[in-house]
Structure formats: structure tokens, C-alpha cells
Write a structure and sequence with these properties.
The complex is a heterodimer of chains A (372) and B (409).
Chain A (H helix, E strand, L loop, with lengths): L7 E4 L2 H11 L5 H21 L7 E3 L3 H5 L5 E4 L4 E7 L5 E5 L12 E8 L4 E9 H5 L2 E3 L4 E5 L7 H9 L20 H9 L9 H8 L2 H11 L6 E3 H4 L33 E9 L2 E11 L5 E9 L11 E6 L4 E6 L6 E3 L3 E3 L4 E8 L2 E8 L1
Parallel strand pairs in A: 4-6, 10-19
Antiparallel strand pairs in A: 1-7, 2-3, 3-4, 5-9, 6-7, 8-9, 11-12, 12-13, 13-16, 13-17, 14-15, 14-18, 18-19
Chain B lengths: L6 H4 L2 E6 L2 E7 L1 H13 L5 H15 L4 H14 L1 H11 L10 H9 L2 H7 L8 H24 L3 H7 L2 H10 L4 H17 L16 H14 L12 H19 L24 H9 L4 H24 L2 H12 L4 H8 L3 H27 L5 H31 L1
Antiparallel strand pairs in B: 1-2
Classes of the chains: A alpha+beta (372), B mainly alpha (409).
């Protein structure tokens, strides 16, 4: 009733509303549920309508549904320009865009559509748009990492967008965006964010964005937040070539090798050595596991922690602990000032014995659960 | 309502809105004297000239010079009285529901003057009146929409549907100290994060959280309160509940501001008389940078060309599109009413009307590009869109007035 021919007001069909609600109910938190609901509605209602203006538009990034659980917004890739939909359930009109959609070159759009949804009336209104440049000139709230434009700072006339497109005006819609450096996918980071009530605010933006860029990582985060059981590494299965995600072979020979490592092994007994990346604050580390079957049918396990970069010393005060399934500390070792690596004393266990390796430094912690 | 004609009146008198009707004009003494001074010095200048003059004056003196800023804003506020009145009339629901008072909306609209003046660009084509017409109308429409929605909401529903910005504004306006505002906003953000309803896809009638949820909210508040500067005090769940309910009331107050004395001209709270106006040198430079008379003539000519072009273009649209335009702009029917009248879906009306509007804008921009050699960017297109909207209203209302007067005779 209170809309004009320069805005779109659309009744959301029952079928779309019900499907979107159903899909949202599996989300672990109320925030995640509503993010998913609102974004699913935006997509399902607007994508067909935008075909006229953005032919062959596809959503980006892949697996956007997992993203909605932690951040709101949907990317649409058109032939030339990108559009980002940001749905809002509030009464007052404001364009509020999470930083993920502005400060990452991979995700940033050219145009941002202001979408307002009234769930009670089952209606959706596209009341205006802004360009990336306009958004960057708007207010940034560090508390929730969003860029804001007030209603009168937004172009409240969609026809301007369509006409500008059709006239093919070459105008600058995007400002310069600094690239996001990739980081090693760290399992412990995943665990921490899985537990956090607001994962996107938990770690520095560039780190968070680097993680979000990796589809596997996003899927894992989603799965963990939905309460899937923690991953256990089954060491015996390594000998059958079954490895859990994240364990890699290292190419270079070891610089630092424990002298006692190969004392009791026969020359052609299979030894498996794998590494997994860990992140503690800003330090990239490797957790290296070396396993070898013993003559008496057990497995001998060696645990080592080193810096990712072979020449870097370990952070001072880094502690590696071996715990039993009951939480009792069996071994502990602390990095000394000149150490490039630390390791636990190798131990032997029967198949099926669980144990936990914990790496801790300056308040940050990584854990891996194993079963021999 | 009698229109004003003298320049002096245009820039110094205000609508007397009594019993929600326009009952004549009130003169503001200071503005009257100030305008008279200027008219004495520039006898030949016309209305368009003074609009641009006062706007640039307002821009030049800046907000720090409260006295001069208020006076120039006052002149323009006086100038826009009818515009505001007509905009509010158009934006208000046609059915005399009695709920919405014109003077209330008028006050809310005219309060937008500073924002409006900040955004207005006197070097662009839409005149201040056309620009203000759009701005007032859009603002009032949206304001009424927000009121209607808020009225349907329980206090908890309102809190879930309010933005942080609006909440912050409401708390500040209620006179709350900054540290208290921060504390309440923290409580609200914990509430909003943890308490979105999960069973039903509706927000308006959200009920109060249960005891368990209140504890979760209180725990979240407790974890985060130390990160504020200064750290917020601990709060029991019952206290949080009270604070949030109070905040909801403040938000409603923001939407229904108490009616001040009707349409008090801004000039009245300027202390003392204006002794010296702008120094002579500044006046000269202002005058010399204004539009020359030839430019004004050119503008009028362009307006006529545009009119001719638009009339031709509309005739090329489909029959239904033309009918929609007539019903929407001429008879000012709501889209729902148009849908009933034509026996089609409201959504179809919305879509076709948007499309017709879009085609007109595209043609107009293409034509303007060729004829006036305008620069190509979205700001210009937005300005042209404003012009178009204004023209459509003017053209169809005139046409409908003609038909009614014919029918009457």
C-alpha cells in the first residue's frame, strides 16, 4: 500500500514460504534459522524476477546455504556485474551489509539490493539499492562488522538501476578491495568457531574470510555447529590407507629427527607419518604423527609439534600434552627457547585405545582425538 | 487554501494548520523583515533566483552559524509550505480513518528540512519544489508504513523488529545518559540474538521470553558487559526485562512524537534581531555565481520539450499500461484498488506499473542524452527520475481535473 512504482513489493507465495521455513528449521541457533529463512525467501522470490535484468544469473559462492548459518547475504553473478541481496526483517529501513560481502574481492558485489521482508504479512519489498562505492563511504560498525547506509543515502528508485544498466553507462561501482591472504585450514580453529555463539565475530576478519573462502571448511563448520560428533582419528586404519580429512604427507625430509625414533623397528616395517596443520593465534604449526606396528601387535606412536616453516622456532611457552580418555595427563612437554620442534616420548598402545593430544600456547588451544 | 503570490509572503509565511485544516497564513516577523531587506536590494530577482540564493546561503554559512543557518532554513521552510502540505495529503491514506492526523504528518515531514537541504543540489534539474515534493511524500509514506507495522506489534515483537540505530535514537531522545544507552543496547542485542522465535515464522506477536530464556539472555549479557567502556553493572533477568520494555515504549514515542505548537516557524526561537547580514563582499560573490536569467528561460524551454516528448512516448505504451498510469497518477488509486478495478492480481499491477515507469525513464534518459548531452551516471538518471515522477503526477492530475470539470458541466 505504501509503495511506489519505483520499488518492488511482492507477495511471497505460500509454497515458497513453507519450503524456506522447513529448510531453516534444521539450523542450530535462532539467528542461523532466521538468516536462512530470510535469505532463502529472497533467493526463491527474486531470482526469477531478476532474470530480466541479470540474465543467466547464478548464485555465488557455492553452497551458499551453509554460509547463511553464519552470515547473511546472497551473491548473484550476472554476465558483467554482481548483485548482492541483503534481506532484513526490521520495520525501519536501513541497508546493513556484513563486511564479508564488502571487503573480500571474491565476494564483493557491484550493486546491493535492499530487501525488506515482513514475515507476518508474507511480503517482500525491494526498496532501493546502493553500489559498493556508496557502501564503503557509509558507516562501518566494528561491533557487528557491518556497513550501513540510511534510507536517504540509498537510491530508492530501482528504475535508476535498470536504466543505468540498459544505457550501459560505464560507471565505477566497486572501490579497491585488498586481497585476502589464504591461511592453512586449521582444525582447531574450526572446533573453536563451532562452539562460539557468534563465529563471525570471534577471530579477526581477514582470518575468518580466508576460512570462509574454502568450501570444505564451510561444510565442516556447518556440520559441527549442527552437533555432529567430533572427529576421531583412527590410527590403525591408516595402515589400510584410510585417512581422516586434514592429514597430509610431508615432502621434505625432517631436519630435526628424534634420535630414538627408529631404535626398535625392523627395516621394512611400515611406518606412516602424517602431518596436520594447526593454528594458534597467528602461528602456523604442524602436528606430526608417526605410527609403526610393533612385533607384539600394538602400535608405536610418536607425537611431534613443529613450526610450519622449518626454520622458525616454536613459540615460547608452547605446551604439548598427552591425555587419556578420562582427561588424565599422561605426558607433557614444553618448548624451550631454541626449539624448532618438540615431541612426546613415543608410546605403545593396543588397538582401540583412545587418547587426546593437546597443543596449547598463550591461551589458544588445539586438540586432536585419536584411537589407536 | 489561498495560495501566496508575493515573494515576500512566499519566503516568510507559514501555514496555520488548525483542526487539521489549512486555515490561512501566519507571518514570521523576523523572516519577513529579513526577506524585505533582501528584496529591497535585489528588486528584479524572481522566485527561482531566491530559492537558489537561500539554499546556497544556507550551504555557505554552515551549521555552526546557528542564527544565519536557521534564518535561511526558515525562508526555505516557508517557501515549501504548500509543497509539504500537498505531499502529506498525497501520502496519507485516502480513507479518512481519523487515526492519522494531517498536522502530525506535516510536522514530521517539515522536520526533514535540514536533511532535505543537505541532499538537494541546486545545479541539477529538479527544482527544490519538485525535489522536496518527492522527498516529503516518500518520507511520510514510509513513516506511516512504519507506524502501522509498529501498531501491529507487541512490545517484544517491536523489539525484535527494531534496528539498532532506531533503538539508539529512541533511547537518546528519551534523555538517557550515554552509558545507560550502551547498557540497554547490549541487553537488547543479547535478547535479539538469542530470542528469535523458532516455532512460528511470525514476529509481530512475539510473547515475552520464558524464565529459562531470560536466564540465557542474562548470562550472555553478563559475559559481555565487561567489554563496554565503562563496564556495565550486573543485571538480574527481571531488571533486563524492565529495561527492554521501557525501551520498546521509547521506540513507539519516536514514531509518534508529541505535537509541538503547530508548525512553529523556525525563526521564532532565534534570539535577538539580525543586525548585520552577510558582509557585502560575500553577497556579491553569491549573486554573481547564481543562475542568470537566460538559464531560467532555457530551463523552461527544456521543460516544454520534455513534456512533448513524454506525451508522445506514453502514447506508444500498451493500452493497459496507459490505463494503469491514469488510474495510479490521475485518480490516485492504490495498487490494490487498481487490481480490483481491472480484475487482475495486485502483483501484476505492481509489476506492469513498474515496467511502464521503467520504459518511460529509459526513453527519457536516452532522449535527454541525445538532446541535452547529459553526463552518464546514476545520479543524473536519479534526477531525471524525480523529474519524471513529478511530471507524471502533474500531467495526470491535470487531465483528471479536466475530465471531472467536463463531467460536472
Amino acid at each position: 500500500m505504501y509503495i511506489t512504482p519505483t520499488q518492488w513489493q511482492i507477495e511471497i507465495p505460500d509454497a515458497i514460504a513453507q519450503t524456506a521455513w522447513r529448510k531453516s528449521k534444521v539450523c542450530p541457533t535462532p539467528q542461523a534459522q532466521w538468516n536462512t529463512y530470510l535469505n532463502q525467501l529472497s533467493c526463491d522470490v527474486l531470482l526469477p524476477l531478476l532474470q530480466d535484468y541479470l540474465p543467466t544469473a547464478t548464485r555465488y559462492p557455492d553452497g551458499i546455504a551453509t554460509i547463511w548459518e553464519v552470515v547473511s547475504g546472497t551473491g548473484l553473478q550476472g554476465p558483467v556485474k554482481r548483485m548482492v541481496l541483503v534481506p532484513d526483517k526490521n520495520i525501519d529501513r536501513e541497508l546493513s551489509v556484513p563486511q564479508e560481502w564488502v571487503d573480500s574481492p571474491e565476494w564483493a558485489g557491484d550493486y546491493y539490493l535492499a530487501v525488506q521482508i515482513n514475515p507476518d504479512e508474507q511480503s517482500l519489498t525491494v526498496w532501493g539499492y546502493a553500489t559498493h562505492t556508496m557502501l564503503k563511504a557509509g558507516a562501518y560498525h566494528a561491533a557487528d562488522r557491518t556497513y550501513h547506509l540510511e534510507a536517504d543515502q540509498v537510491i530508492q528508485d530501482l528504475n535508476v538501476l535498470w536504466v543505468t544498466q540498459q544505457m550501459n553507462f560505464q560507471e565505477v561501482t566497486q572501490g579497491a578491495i585488498a586481497p585476502i591472504q589464504p591461511i592453512a585450514t586449521a582444525e582447531n580453529l574450526l572446533q573453536r568457531l563451532a562452539r562460539s555463539p557468534r563465529p563471525r565475530l570471534e577471530i579477526p576478519f581477514v582470518q575468518w574470510m580466508a576460512c570462509l573462502h574454502q568450501p570444505d571448511w564451510r561444510r565442516r563448520l556447518s556440520a559441527l555447529r549442527r552437533g555432529e560428533p567430533p572427529k576421531v582419528n583412527h590410527l590403525s586404519q591408516w595402515f589400510q590407507n584410510i585417512f581422516e580429512a586434514g592429514w597430509a604427507v610431508i615432502d621434505n625430509p625432517l631436519i630435526y629427527e628424534a634420535p630414538a625414533l627408529r631404535q626398535n623397528s625392523a627395516i621394512d616395517a611400515p611406518i606412516i607419518r602424517r602431518v596436520k596443520a594447526l593454528q594458534l593465534h597467528d602461528r602456523s604449526l604442524f602436528l606430526m604423527m608417526t605410527v609403526e606396528p610393533t612385533p607384539d601387535g600394538r602400535l608405536e606412536v610418536q607425537v611431534q609439534v613443529r613450526s610450519r616453516d622449518e626454520e622458525t622456532r616454536l613459540p615460547l611457552g608452547l605446551i604439548v600434552t598427552l591425555q587419556s580418555s578420562s582427561g588424565e595427563t599422561i605426558q607433557m612437554v614444553q618448548a624451550l627457547p631454541e626449539d624448532l620442534a618438540v615431541q612426546l616420548q613415543r608410546f605403545r598402545s593396543n588397538t582401540g585405545t583412545p587418547f587426546l593430544v593437546q597443543v596449547e600456547w598463550d591461551g589458544d588451544r588445539a586438540e586432536e582425538l585419536f584411537m589407536v | 487554501m489561498q495560495s501566496r503570490h508575493s515573494l515576500l509572503d512566499l519566503f516568510s509565511t507559514f501555514l496555520n494548520l488548525s483542526d487539521d485544516r489549512a486555515q490561512g497564513w501566519l507571518t514570521d516577523g523576523r523572516l519577513h523583515r529579513h526577506m524585505q531587506q533582501h528584496l529591497d536590494q535585489n528588486a528584479s530577482a524572481a522566485e527561482d533566483f531566491w530559492v537558489v540564493y537561500w539554499h546556497r546561503y544556507w550551504q555557505q554559512v554552515g551549521p555552526e552559524d546557528r542564527v544565519r543557518s536557521r534564518i535561511s532554513e526558515g525562508h526555505l521552510s516557508a517557501y515549501l509550505q504548500e509543497t509539504c502540505y500537498w505531499s502529506v495529503q498525497r501520502a496519507m491514506p485516502k480513507t479518512g480513518s481519523g487515526q492519522v492526523q494531517l498536522s502530525d504528518c506535516f510536522q514530521v515531514a517539515i522536520a526533514q528540512m535540514p536533511k532535505l537541504l543537505r541532499k538537494f543540489d541546486s545545479s541539477q534539474r529538479p527544482s527544490l519544489k519538485a525535489y522536496a515534493h518527492r522527498a516529503f511524500e516518500n518520507f511520510v509514506r514510509d513513516h506511516l508504513r512504519q507506524r502501522q507495522e509498529a501498531d501491529c506489534c507487541s512490545d517484544w515483537g517491536l523489539l525484535i523488529k527494531v534496528s539498532r540505530k532506531r533503538l539508539s535514537e529512541a533511547l537518546k531522545q528519551s534523555g538517557m545518559a550515554a552509558t545507560d544507552c550502551d547498557r540497554v543496547i547490549l541487553a537488547w542485542s543479547c535478547f535479539e540474538e538469542l530470542y528469535l522465535p523458532t516455532k512460528v515464522a511470525g514476529l509481530r506477536q512475539t510473547k515475552s521470553p520464558d524464565v529459562e530464556t531470560w536466564q540465557t539472555i542474562a548470562d550472555a549479557y553478563d559475559r559481555q558487559r565487561t567489554s563496554l567502556q565503562p563496564p556495565a553493572p550486573a543485571m538480574a533477568p527481571a531488571q533486563l526485562e524492565r529495561d527492554l520494555l521501557q525501551a520498546a515504549k521509547q521506540v513507539r514515542t519516536l514514531l509518534y512524537p508529541p505535537l509541538k505548537s503547530l508548525n512553529l516557524p523556525k525563526g521564532n526561537d532565534i534570539p535577538g534581531e539580525i543586525q548585520d547580514d552577510l558582509p557585502a563582499s560575500e553577497q556579491d560573490s553569491l549573486l554573481s555565481s547564481l543562475i542568470q536569467q537566460e538559464d531560467l528561460d532555457e530551463r523552461q524551454q527544456q521543460q516544454q520539450q520534455m513534456q512533448a516528448f513524454l506525451i508522445t512516448t506514453i502514447a506508444t505504451l500498451g493500452r493497459q499500461a496507459q490505463e494503469l498510469l491514469t488510474l495510479y497518477y490521475g485518480q490516485r488509486l492504490k495498487q490494490q484498488q487498481i487490481a480490483q478495478h481491472l480484475n487482475i492480481q495486485q502483483y501484476t499491477v505492481s509489476r506492469q506499473l513498474s515496467k511502464a515507469r521503467e520504459i518511460l525513464l529509459l526513453r527519457l534518459v536516452q532522449w535527454a542524452n541525445q538532446t541535452w548531452h547529459i553526463s552518464a551516471d546514476s545520479n543524473v538518471v536519479a534526477s531525471i527520475s524525480t523529474l519524471l515522477e513529478d511530471w507524471l503526477q502533474y500531467h495526470y492530475e491535470l487531465a483528471s481535473a479536466d475530465t471531472t470539470s467536463l463531467e460536472g458541466s
